[in-house]
Amino acid sequence: MMVAYHDDEWGRPLHDERGLFEVLCLEGAQAGLSWSTILRRRVGYRAVYDDFDASRMAAYDDERQAQLLADPRIIRNRAKVQAFRDNAAAVLRLREREGGLEAFLWSFVDGVPVVNRPLTLSQVPARTALADGISSALKARGFRFVGPVIVYAYLQSIGIVNDHLLGCFRHPESTTA
């Protein structure tokens, strides 16, 4: 599962609004947990969160929130469940005011992914000035669970930052036979 995620998804530039919102939520859900835990539950998250339809999620009432906290298909953490609803409302405001997540996020890099050249995992940072700036901007717009470490992992996931190791076939400079 983790290999397939790496090979097929992680680090590929993502421009789809729903997909960007899903990954943002899931990266926040991952806080304090392993990514494999979240990947194993991704299908469940999609089912209980209406395939990450922000309009529907922002409208969840307290009864729906209580149902989510009882659903074993997701991480049943009250703060994270609340953050999903809050982030849905924040993304709707962002769409109205700034064109959406895609326009907002990619503007920080002028639409061009940052391609790093790490040789080893120890050379991949946990956060950067870019992540710090985007984290602050997201928080100012009402997003939650978007600290700089979470945001950096998010930027890697959605391909704004390419931190594939130089020897990895997914690094742009790699060649495969």
Report on the structure:
By secondary structure, the protein is an all-alpha fold. The chain has one domain (2-162): Endonuclease III, domain 1, CATH 1.10.340. 55% of the residues lie in helices and 2% in strands. A two-stranded parallel ribbon has the order 1-2. α2 packs across α3 (35-48), α2 (17-29) packs across α9 (148-157) and α8 packs across α9. The two termini are 24 Å apart. The model has no long low-confidence stretch (mean pLDDT 95).
Q: Tally of extended strands? A: 2
CATH architecture descriptor? Orthogonal Bundle
DSSP strand content: under 5%
**Whole-Å distance between the termini?**
24 Å
Percent helix, as a range, is: 40-55%
Brief sketch in words of this structure:
The chain has 177 residues and is mainly alpha-helical. The protein has a single domain, classed as Endonuclease III, domain 1. The chain has nine helices and two strands; from the N terminus they run H-H-H-H-H-H-H-E-H-H-E.
Please write out the topology.
Blueprint: H1 2-8, H2 17-29, H3 35-48, H4 54-58, H5 62-69, H6 78-98, H7 101-107, E1 114-115, H8 129-140, H9 148-157, E2 161-162
Helix pairs in contact: 2-3, 2-6, 2-9, 8-9
Question: What brief labels describe this structure?
Answer:
single chain, 177 residues, mainly alpha, Endonuclease III, domain 1, two-stranded parallel sheet
